[in-house]
Specification:
The chain is of the alpha/beta class. 26% of the residues lie in helices and 25% in strands. The chain binds thymidine-5'-diphosphate (TYD) and magnesium ion.
């Protein structure tokens, strides 16, 4: 068969048999390029009868020496990666440009190198002078980190093979250029090739490799997403611009729990660890006010108290606004619908704004009840009971489902000076000394307990 022509999207890597101005898969314009396939069409060939080599088989026995973790002493970082760096592992650290990935990685490199590990930091983005200046500002210039500024994948691999560091940080994978791939640096095919070569190197030589990747705000992840499956661990560094703290979140981890978070604060001298994040996510000098509820949440393995703020006000628009920061807007729509349908609390003609204090992004369903509490509190202009935390998942029927780890949520609340909790607890009787727990099993019960069923304002009628 003759060589076949296929077309490939340089943005998402999707292959197709015909050219188009716009990629069907990712919606990008002018990204489809022809790729001459030297091999014949993918379906036209099979392995045939030519034999390969028999693969050596092993068993499931675990040898301790295979998983020697290295701690950096940066506790928030160590915990997120599952308790320490695993040799021969590949990790991706993704995040928005300017969020602080390079700063974090330079600090991690310095920490590891001062514990005696050989660390190489390869930057394809900044000049050596810039990095040295930053190191100086961070007070880590004396750390024995081997610094290189290079973008050629071939030269980087050769250097890594010669140096054999225990840890190699590549900042960023989008700047790395593989000479055997003919598309521009930063394109999907380049990023894939670089990530593939570097993860293969990690497995082959026992070096732990950390790849830094930029994620664009539009959610089109020109790079990192497509290499998530190649690496062992995927961490995202998140934070709201204007807020000084940053969250490092494990979204995939072959060597530890996913969803673990580490909290850092960006200061004038780099990132510092925040050991007690609850204090951070409760707004300072907090007084109970309408529209505010405190969620006793779980982030990863750790309980975290977070303030949920809502503003519900008559809308001047024909189409009332629903704006959410730090939570899923689909989930907000669901909570509003359940409040309307099951509890008879209409939000028609009302603007709804929801904000998670401190720039944290919450994913767990146990936040539902705290959101409902904040919404009702703002709508009714009535404060929630003082020093009380709320958590629980709302189902479409209006029934409340108990949340996991209720005990540690309550303990964290007690530790931070709270004295009450409202939550569904189910059959188990979860108690913590010092916390007055009110068990609710249905959203309308919750409305009754907190606001008194008859007292709900009929804003809908008032608005019409
Ligand atoms: P950087 O690590 O370069 O971000 P990324 O690699 O994710 O693009 O961080 C850049 C931002 O961090 C920049 O806006 C300045 C801020 N910053 C501080 O606030 N304090 C510091 O000590 C450093 C080094 C940076
Ligand atoms: Mg950077």
């Amino acid at each position: 068969m003759a060589a076949s022509e296929i077309y490939i999207c340089t943005a998402c890597g999707t292959e197709s048999t015909k050219w188009a101005g716009r990629c069907d898969a990712c919606g990008e314009w002018n990204t489809i390029e022809v790729k001459v396939n030297s091999v014949t069409g993918p379906t036209s060939k099979s392995l045939g009868r030519k034999r390969g080599t028999k693969i050596a088989l092993t068993n499931l026995k675990f040898s301790e020496s295979g998983l020697q973790r290295e701690q950096s002493g940066f506790e928030e970082f160590d915990r997120v990666i599952g308790g320490g760096l695993v040799p021969a592992s590949a990790t991706l650290v993704g995040g928005d440009p300017g969020i602080g990935k390079s700063t974090l990685m330079l600090q991690v490199a310095a920490k590891f190198s001062t514990t005696g590990l050989s660390v190489m930091y390869v930057s394809g983005e900044e000049a050596a002078g810039q990095i040295q200046m930053r190191a100086n500002r961070l007070g880590i210039a004396a750390a024995p980190v081997k610094l290189a500024t290079e973008t050629s994948l071939r030269d980087i691999r050769t250097t890594l093979e010669a140096e054999r560091p225990a840890l190699a940080i590549i900042d960023s994978v989008q700047t790395i250029w593989a000479d055997f791939v003919d598309s521009s640096p930063g394109s999907i095919t380049q990023v894939r090739a670089a990530a593939h070569e570097l993860t293969v190197f990690a497995k082959r030589c026992g070096t732990a490799v950390i790849l830094v990747g930029h994620v664009t705000k539009e959610g089109q992840i020109a790079g990192p997403r497509v290499i998530e499956h190649m690496v062992d661990t995927v961490l995202y560094f998140e934070g709201e611009r204007g807020h000084h703290f940053r969250i490092l979140r494990a979204v995939k981890n072959r060597f530890g729990p996913a969803d673990e978070i580490g909290v850092f604060e960006m200061t004038g001298r780099g990132l510092t660890e925040v050991a007690n994040p609850s204090a951070l996510f409760l707004s300072e000098g907090r007084e109970v006010s309408p529209g505010s509820a405190v969620l006793a949440g779980i982030e990863g393995t750790r309980p975290v108290l977070v303030e949920i703020q809502a503003l519900v006000a008559p809308s001047p628009h024909a189409q009332p606004r629903r704006a959410v920061v730090g939570w899923d807007s689909g989930r907000l729509a669901m909570v509003l619908a359940v409040l309307e349908a099951r509890c008879g609390v209409p939000f028609v003609g009302l603007d709804v704004y929801l904000n998670v204090a401190g720039g944290l992004k919450i994913h767990e369903p146990a936040a539902d009840l705290a959101v409902a509490a904040a919404l009702l509190s703002s709508r009714e202009d009535v404060s929630l009971p003082e020093k009380t935390v709320v958590f629980g998942e709302i189902s479409l029927s209006g029934a409340l489902r108990p949340a996991s780890k209720a005990q540690s949520r309550l303990k964290e609340a007690q530790k931070l000076g709270f004295s009450g909790a409202i939550a569904p607890v189910g059959k188990k009787s979860e108690t913590v000394v010092g916390i007055d727990l009110v068990d609710v099993s249905d959203l309308s019960d919750f409305v009754g307990i907190v606001f008194g069923t008859s007292g709900l304002k009929k804003r809908k009628e008032a608005h019409e």
